[in-house]
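Minutes, project huddle
Topic: does the predicted pose make sense with zinc ion bound?
PN asked that the exact inputs be recorded in the minutes so nobody has to dig through chat later. Recorded below.
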Amino acid sequence: MILLDMKQHTVTFAFLSLILMSNVSGQSAATLLKGDEKLGGRKAQAGESITSKLGIEDCTFLYYVDCTQGICYCHLSSVTASEGCEQVSDMKAQSRDTFNPNAFLFLSSSASSLPPSRLLLGRQLNKLPHPVVILISCDGFRFGFQHKTPTPNIKRLISQGTEAETGLIPVFPTLTFPNHYSIITGLYPAYHGIVGNSFIDPKTGDSFDQQNFDSKWWLGEPLWETVVNQGLNAATFFWPGSEVNRSSWTCPSKYCRQFNKSVLFEERVDTILSYLDLPTSDIPSFMTLYLDDPDAQGHKVGPDHPQITEAVANIDRLVGRMISGLEKRGIFEDVHVILVGDHGMVGTCDQRLIFLKELAPWIDIPENWIERYTPLLSIRPPPNVLADDVVAKINKGLNSGKVGNGKYLKVYLKENLPSRLHYSDSDRITPIVGLADEGFKVEMNISVARQCAGAHGYDNAFFSMRSIFIGHGPRFAKGVKVPSFENIQIYNLVTSILNIKGARNNGTSSFPKKVLLPRHN
Ligand SMILES: [Zn+2]
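Predicted holo structure (tokens), as shared on screen:
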């Protein structure tokens, strides 16, 4: 058996680093300078396999050249089966922090555009006995807010972790409760049942609001339940739905709080940190932390006010408090911190209003047909009124040119909404849904003038509705950006990190492989 010490190991990598990957005039190719018996100096094309003996007797490493979006990397596909070779392979995987992966990959001046290298495995835990995920949500943290002001702590997570390059895509409607519950269940709102912040079940006539913890409303399987079902501990310091008793999850007082927005953010962070001081067997594998900002400010003053900048700076300080708490405990590199938001925020002004009363020449819409006005117009006509007739009359009026801003509202039968919104397959969704254009608001009648402010809930295709995704920890590659993705994918990311079986959901089962480093066994 060949045992390598770290010095030899470094030599091994120096040898490997002689493989130079390049992107020549848009054509992805790899040049092998030397160290490969087969190719000599010629370019290896994407898809080609390269063997290297690495100077170690009887060990042959087979690499696969993979080029994605103009970036090539080597993927170790196999090592000849002998104990010594496996040892080399294993150390290679573990040694991510002892060498610069860029030196091996030789791809570009920065690691920031690299996909996670499949050569590398997740780092081993040093201190914690099991993987831990802390999922932090900052309400209304629009993608880009992190650049409003110096955010050294968020930037640290980004530079040493994995970020969704142009933000996290919320589900439709881009509202707080539907999105938080999609993040935690991996389901679109039509399937997890929380189709809005408030809505009516037409079968029973019952109303849902944000203080309703009756489990009949909350469908799907939230992560805390999945975790507890499999014999692990979960803890929540606020998250929509976390107070709801469902199956194995009873919101135990030791690990779960009833929402109270007056609880200081610092207390929320410190409580999560204190769970990590528990006896090993009690440390939760999964924890949620909810922060109400900068949504609270965004609604009052819009996304471009100094109050937002201040709120973002405060969120960064809280992230810093979390990082230093983890560092003090010697577990910052062991814990997976996932920082997300539920949706973005866009400015709204009085001149961007649509008044339903102006539709009177075409249709009179009684107030009691309307469940919600804006920015998602939800209309449930009584059973004796044909919904498609209502839609036709409303759209005729909106398209007449006689309704102020009429062209900025489109009204649909829910089954005719764009399928990418996944917003039809539930009785709780009203038969008629109107989509207001970015920043527009729908009201019944002209009301008192008001200041410009902020709103969300619009089509999730608007960039202004995006939030952030940053992952830091053993299974996240460092300094890597991944293409933006929908927040329903997060459920599978967490179950993959925790190595537990997840419930069925709308996420893609192969998605974690694209974002996470392979598990280190
Ligand atoms: Zn929100």
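Observations noted during the meeting:
- The pocket of zinc ion is lined by residues 139-140, 176, 295, 342-343 (CB under 6 Å).
- The CA atoms of residues 192 and 219 lie 5 Å apart.
No decisions taken; revisit at the next huddle.
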